[in-house]
Amino acid sequence: MKKDGLLNVVLGGYVVLVFLFIFAPIFFSIVFSFNSQRFPTIPLGEFSTEWYVKILDDPDILEAALNSLIVSFSTAILATLLGFCTAYSDFRYNFRFKGPYLALILLPPTIPLIIMALAMLAWFSKIGISGQLWSIVFAHSVLTAPFAMAIIRLRLNQMDPDLESAAWNLGGTEWATMRHVIFPFCKPAIISAMCLTAAVSFDEFAVSWFVSGLNKTIPVVILEIVQGNIDPQVNAIGTFVFLISITLVVLAQVFFIGRQHKKSSS
Amino acid sequence: MPIIVWQLAFFVGPVLFMVAMSFFLVKNYRMTEAFEFVNWAKMFSKGYFWSSYWHTVWIATISTLCAMCLAFPAAFALAFKASENTRRWAIFFLIIPFFTSYLVRTFSWFVILSESGVVNAILGTVGLGPYTMLNTHIGTLVGYMTLTLPLVVILQTVTMANIDRTLIEAARNLGCKPLAVIWRVILPLSKAGFIIAAVFCFILSFGDFVAPFYLGGSQEPTLPILILDTTKSGQQWPRAAVIAVVMMATLFTLAFTAIAIAYRKRSTS
Amino acid sequence: MTKNLVVFDKIHKSFGNFVAVEEMNFDIKEGEFIAIMGPSGCGKTTTLRMLAGLDAPSSGEILINDQVMNDVKPHERDTPLVWQSLALFPFLTARENVEFGLKMRGVEKAERKKRALNWLDKLGILEFQDRDISTLSGGQKQRVALARSLVMEPKMLLLDEPLSALDAHLVIRMQSVLTQLQKELGITFVYVTHSQSEAFAMADRVVIMSKGEIAQIGSPRDIYREPANQFVAEFVGRNNILSGTVESVEHNRAKLNTPSGDFFVEVKAGQLTERDSASFVISADLVHLSAGEPDSKNTVACQLISEEFVGSMVTLFLENASGHEFKVQMQERELSKLELDLAKPIWLSWSECSAHVLGC
User: Fold this and answer.
1) Do A162 and C105 touch (CB under 8 A)?
2) Does B132 touch chain A if contact means CB atoms closer than 8 Å?
3) Which chains contact C through at least 3 pairs of Cβ atoms less than 8 Å apart?
4) Least enclosed by CB within 10 Å: which of A16, A146, C2, C157?
5) Bridging pattern class, strands B30-32 and B25-27
6) ipTM for the assembly
7) Cβ separation of A181 and C89 shorter than 8 Å?
8) CA-to-CA distance for C205 and B214, rounded, in angstroms?
9) Residue B41 located in a structural domain
């Protein structure tokens, strides 16, 4: 019993260490973004917001931020639409080439991004849509659709399969059933899927870097700043990026888990 | 089905085109469509290609082993010692880094690990160091862990949390010692989940260029860095395509073998 | 003569290689309460789903109101179903659930609300109208599901094991709610169940199905007293079945040799001839007990194996010398009046006319 207690303490401590390792870079990035020194080190210099002022004055960064927002928003909508259609067709229908069909949608994340980046770049220049914001959106929609599909499919798993038949039985056409039953049931999952795909798209750099051309997004700008020199601006941008990503992820989780009990009594 | 068209246009299309591109020719800095094995022959005859290939395989393997071993005690604690609620929160927190900028986190490590960085400052107070960690394999590995550790911990935790507790109690009841329970009951039961975690970890490390480039100093370039160099500097896209195809072939072979092993059923005795 | 509301004409349904329903011919009259009963996998739910248009028959025709329904889509039919899982929409309130069908039919909002509230009131759940489905109890959900179907004012209501999820005491309550509703509304109820007590308690007619085929159709009394075949006799339960060969037939009276002895049964003219093999049943509640050998032709000496009490009824399980099991059911009060010594052999006997010969 006593030995077990010690083991638990050691294991608990270890878990804390692992979490420290995982969150250390995020933590220090935020800390150093408020540090006045040019080269971030310990002991810290004075508290300062100069890096924030600097990035807010930089038109290139602001433009990249706008690009990033457009890309991630469009990606979220496209990828979630793709994910929803795939998830629903998997839930509802059984057909002969379902295996290959699902593989087609779920496979992209298993291919390293650098390879996808090269392939997308080559293909987009071949068919002549390279170097635009839309090229990033197309690429990202393919890369993030599997996440949307997984989330929505999980939600559909929780649905009583009779629900759909019940709606037809009560006079709902296929479309009305989709609108009044399937869609409301999946709504929390659809919102989480949009948040998560937006977050992934917002942070993705390899593919964006290759296909973006002159329309840089935030991660591409970071990549270019980081190349070569140490610039605490990155920490400031990074803090913004974290804030946006974490907000999206938290929103996604809130919608996915927290919506079970909304109106508990009248 | 419009989805199929979409995926064909923006997923299958690019990948197949890249495979085709590896047979194209480059003349006067312009790519011409052809079907020649020149790029393949060129790449395969280069010593640096092969050394880079084995280096990448090796470091991705090390990274996978590290991640699996480092993650196990934590996943074990989360799966068996923590309450359901704690576990859910832990997984929630482990998902966060997955969706936050890997690039910024890597840059942050760059600052933390540098010779006048946080780690050396802390070690300095107890009279150690300074150590050089950047531009070494340690740097690369730290980067890989940043990328893979959260995912591996999640996959291992979920796998072990799903084990039927009565099986473990049955083993204890039959006189199995605690360590033997891990070895003889828990690990065999989590085989499939662990293999999948390892495969994902390998794929991520194998294909990542940020960690070896910024934290490892790219003295020994990995394949992703080679792709980067060949694409961004010279107009040698076909050669980059050769590397990419080789990488994909390696990963697919590995993934299929691993999945075959993970889900193998003993049908005959 | 009441009109046929539904006609099943040579209906056959298979899923791949599995035959769910085979050669089904029967009809449902207007305003009757019909129960379809059978063990799981007998095709009873498939039959109901075909009525609602959720499964299409592989061959044959289903007519509702003399109209062939095979190609009519589920949402174009007036056949609301009460689901085993209830299938209430979890993201809607109780009232919104009831309104759903009306909304799909394009009924205007105020009218919808009025009709929904009317039904919620009729079923005694008006106070829960704005509650989320997940906060309601099993019985309340049951009533919402009923209201949701009945608000459509259908000519026929389909029910698929609607009471299977309820506690025993609620089942009895809901049974009387259902029979009363059916009488009041005068509409047809098609009720699928695996429970004999539910079917027999409520239905005017019972259809017993086995392996995709109809084993017997009849009133609960007919099925109980005169099961058509061995399957029905066994499925209905609490029956004693004896099989043997016919030794002789004279004056509507046959003598059978069975391993448990020779017995006489009443037969219709020409029903059995000599050397036929035949089976007959005696309901467990029609068997008499005595301590000494009675003055009767149909008697068996048995040893008591076990007793089972359900309320005031007792069922005795006995076995004779050749190992055949007999069941005897009676009021506990009557059993104690007999003052039997349960350790000694007990004599079972029955009158010739209570034995019922089974078809093959």
Assistant:
1) no
2) no
3) A
4) C2
5) antiparallel
6) 0.81
7) yes
8) 81
9) no
pLDDT at B110: 81
Q: Is residue A40 part of a domain?
A: no
Which of B95, B103, B149 lies closest to A223 in CB terms?
B103
Asked if chain B contacts chain C via 3 or more Cβ pairs within 8 Å, the reply is no
The tens digit of pLDDT for each residue in A20-56 reads 888 888 888 888 888 777 666 666 667 777 788 888 8
From the CA of B72, how many Å to the nearest CA of chain A? 10
Name which of B211-215, C52-56, C108-112, C149-153 the model is least confident about.
B211-215
State whether A163 and C128 contact (CB < 8 Å).
Answer: no
Q: Tell whether B106 is covered by a domain.
A: yes
**Rounded to an integer, what is the distance from CA B229 to the centroid of its chain?**
21
The verdict on residue A8 lying in a domain is no
Residue A129 lies in a domain: yes
Q: Give a yes or no: residue B202 inside a domain.
A: yes
Model confidence over B128-155: pLDDT tens digits?
767 777 777 788 888 889 888 998 999 9
Structural domain for A145, as ranges: 50-265
- Domains of chain A: total: 1
Number of domains in chain B: 1
**Looking at chain B, which subunits does it touch, using at least 3 CB pairs closer than 8 Å as the criterion?**
A
Contacts of C159 by beta carbon, 8 Å cutoff, 6+ apart: C81, C82, C178, C189, C190, C191, C192
- Confidence grade of residue C35 (pLDDT, cut at 50, 70, 90): very high
A93: CATH: 1.10.3720.10
Please check whether residue A3 lies inside any domain of the structure: no
Whether chain A has a CB inside 8 Å of the CB on B206: the answer is yes
Residue among B10, B118, B244 minimizing CB distance to A138 = B10
Backbone angles phi, psi at C97, to 5 degrees: -60, -45
CA distance C56 to chain A (A): 14
Residue A151 to residue A193: CA distance in whole angstroms: 6
What pTM value is reported for the model?
0.79
- Cα dihedral B196, B198, B202, B208, rounded to 10, equals 90
